[in-house]
Amino acid sequence: MKKPILKIFCITAFTGLLFSCSTNEINELDSKAESEQFKIIEVTHHDGKPFSTGTSSSSSTAKYVDNPGGGVMMQAFYWDVPAGGNWWNTISNKVTAWGNAGIGSIWLPPASKAQNGAFSMGYDPTDYFDFGDYNQNGTTETRFGSKSELVSLITNAHTQNIKVYADIVINHNSGGQSEANPFTGTNTWTNFNGIASGKFKRTYANFYKNSFGNNDEGSFGGFPDLCHADPYVKDWLWLRADGVGKYYKNTMKFDGWRFDYVKGFGAWVVNAWNANVGGFSVGELWDSNVNVLNDWANAANSSVFDFACYYKMNDAFDGNNLALLNDDMMWKRNPYKAVTFVTNHDTDEIWSKMLAYSYILTHEGYPTIFYRDYEEWLDKNKLNNLIWIHNNKATGTTSILYADNDEYLARRNGYNGNPGLVVYINNSDVWQERWIQTNWANTQIKDFTGNSTWYPTTQADKWVKIQCPPKGYSIWSINQ
After folding, report:
1. Considering only 26-40, 149-163, 311-325, which range has the smallest mean pLDDT?
2. Given a cut of 50, is residue 10 above it in pLDDT?
3. How many CA atoms lie within 13 A of 37 on its CB side?
4. Least CB-packed of 182, 245, 273, 313 within 10 Å?
């Protein structure tokens, strides 16, 4: 009796094994078929070249070697950094480590003396040529330090292959003296004739309302509103060899500009500045409408912060609907004029920050990292890994491979021999797996974040199954 029972058992076991294998194969085919039903979205259409911040003539010692994926910017401050005049030194002590991590540029707060003196964050400018070397507004140094410390920071950054961008506030001024204003029939705080540097003195005639008109595109907080239509203002801001723009670039050695509150004046102002001064530029146009952002960027001949991307990421990651990442953004509309970000000194709404950073550091545009995210709030090692991936793998045009509520997969299609990557973002609470089509046939790939230990090989038709951890991301490319 034992032999027949053993025979029946073996037949049953073998049949079960065959059924299990067959079921697994069917499940794999069904899984692949589900992915094949998603119509791949070809997001961008260009020759694949990376975002360029241009070359700099400010420093003969700077290397400025572009990475295959383009650059990464650090916003090197936050609102109300410690007062006391030591911030320039604090940043200077970090630029070596930042350069080693792959940071290509830093954005500094407004560097000149402002109305609130030693306590000002710089957005209420009084004297554009006082970098902490004149005793006015109750202090010699600015909140951030002295002119010599700023020069030392810029020099140090340049030796580390890092460009330095100045925050430029040219919509409004503050800290002037009261004077009778015939255009308003009142007294206004528009007399800047007593500024300590003696450069770019101003009176009521240089602010709206004046002989050039009643107003421009916008005023800010009741501050005196600079009139860019005034030839004197144009001359001092961007035309003169010793004016603001050219002094900042040629003497202070800034490499570019972040223009504050560009809704307050016409795009032609930034266009004229860029044409006459040069350097990289990005505008703060706080608007989620892609058409508004793109129209301004083209008119200003400037990059613009991608607020459309910012708000879509907030809705997608925190609202658990990653399909929203299919929607229009500035980087999709014009990747060479889009500066992407997760947080800045004015707004910090996104909760799932690492997912957001995995998005901007694998997609097109010029990604920005916020100082406090990098130095205080998030895992610096994980951010450094994403920076490395951006610089070395995030190349070429973009294709969205799949998107639903909690899964998003996109492919960078490679450029100039660099194979690109596939990014998988998972906003669910469990591990996910998905078949996707790569650009690589019969090729072993790996997850360069280390979040997955798989080393799958793509099929002859370039399809492969990859995985992603819960509330996490994986980024795949050729294993080389």
Report:
1. 26-40
2. no
3. 7
4. 182
What is the arithmetic mean of pLDDT over 218-247? Answer: 95
- The answer to whether the beta carbons of residues 288 and 307 sit under 8 Å apart is yes
Which amino acid is located at 71 in the chain? G
For the chain, what is the mean pLDDT? 93
Length of the chain in residues, anyone?
480
Cα–Cα distance between 219 and 169 in angstroms, integer? 12
Q: State the residue for tokens 């383009």.
A: 70
| pLDDT at residue 1 tops 50 | no
Is residue 218 very low, low, confident or very high in pLDDT (cuts 50, 70, 90)?
Answer: confident
From the CA atom positions of the chain, what is the Rg in Å?
A: 27
Q: Quote the CA–CA distance of 349 and 307 in Å, as a whole number.
A: 12
Percent of the chain whose predicted confidence (pLDDT) is above 70: 91
* Distant-in-sequence, close-in-space partners of 175: CB < 8 Å, separation ≥ 6: 114, 115, 124, 125, 126, 127, 137, 189, 192
Average pLDDT rounded to a whole number, residues 88-101: 98
Q: For the residues 372-389, what does the mean pLDDT come to?
A: 98
> What's the rounded Cα separation, in Å, for the pair 424 and 410?
7
Cβ atoms < 10 Å from Cβ of 221: 10
- For residues 426, 395, 164, 125, the Cα torsion angle rounded to the nearest 10 degrees is -60
**Which pair of structure tokens corresponds to residue 120?**
């000002």
Q: Which is it for the CA torsion 3, 5, 6, 7, positive or negative?
A: positive
Cα(329)–Cα(306) distance, rounded to whole angstroms?
A: 7
Per-residue tokens: 33: 């078929």
Taking only the tens place, the pLDDT of each residue in 253-279 is 999 999 999 999 999 999 999 999 999
Model confidence at 62: pLDDT above 90: no
Rounded CA gap, 453 and 431, in Å? 13
